[in-house]
């Protein structure tokens, strides 16, 4: 029996890969489309409760009983000085949040950061290898003076690992004269232990993650209309 030509093997493999990618993209669109349904959107609080009682339990624990009204992924803060961190810490009203100094820079691939809306307060929680390393609270007073920003070309290049391929939104805050940038995304992407959503029901999980990002923006903009963009 003559050997199968290499070109035939390549063609078969290429065709199989194309079919696989086609059906995966189709499945992804179907899953994501399901979560664009207004009826599904109304279930966002329920989905959020499920996430916070599961793989996102570390965030719920870190909130120490404070309500979580919305949550999304964000980039790590690189412009926060010790003075600014101390000032942000004074926004805490009754709870003692963890306050551990951050390093100069982090790798987005190894860590995870979130913005959590709790009442009128916005919490920034940073996880390094599954452990909380930073928890700051920005109260209504600071958020009322915040403004919508845009990523400069320099920022896009410098923070390529954090913002590449993502729909990003930026808030500019002033803390004791120090400019602090909050860059957040319109979806969740990874768990506090830094693991991406690669699992059996990954498509469904990604749909919920995207819904969480949309829900966060709606809740944030409802509370602070001047921060919408």
UniProtKB/TrEMBL annotation:
This is Uncharacterized protein. The lineage of its organism: Bacteria, Pseudomonadati, Bacteroidota, Chitinophagia, Chitinophagales. The chain crosses the membrane at residues 6-24. Keywords: Membrane, Transmembrane, Transmembrane helix. It comes from the Bacteria.
């Amino acid at each position: 029996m003559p050997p199968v030509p290499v070109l035939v093997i390549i063609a078969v493999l290429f065709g199989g890969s194309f079919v696989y990618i086609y059906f995966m993209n189709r499945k992804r669109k179907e899953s994501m489309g399901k979560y664009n349904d207004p009826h599904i959107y109304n279930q966002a609080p329920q989905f959020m409760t499920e996430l916070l009682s599961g793989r996102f339990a570390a965030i719920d624990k870190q909130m120490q009983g404070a309500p979580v009204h919305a949550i999304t992924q964000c980039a790590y803060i690189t412009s926060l000085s010790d003075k600014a961190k101390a000032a942000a810490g004074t926004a805490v009203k009754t709870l003692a949040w963890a306050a551990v100094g951050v390093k100069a820079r982090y790798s987005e691939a190894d860590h995870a950061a979130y913005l959590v809306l709790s009442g009128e307060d916005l919490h920034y929680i940073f996880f390094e290898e599954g452990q909380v390393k930073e928890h700051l609270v920005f109260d209504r007073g600071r958020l009322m003076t915040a403004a919508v920003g845009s990523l400069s070309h320099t920022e896009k290049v410098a923070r390529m690992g954090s913002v590449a391929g993502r729909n990003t939104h930026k808030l500019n805050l002033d803390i004791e004269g120090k400019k602090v940038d909050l860059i957040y995304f319109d979806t969740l992407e990874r768990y506090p232990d830094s693991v991406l959503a690669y699992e059996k029901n990954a498509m469904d999980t990604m749909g919920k993650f995207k819904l969480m990002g949309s829900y966060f923006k709606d809740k944030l903009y409802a509370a602070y209309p001047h921060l919408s963009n």
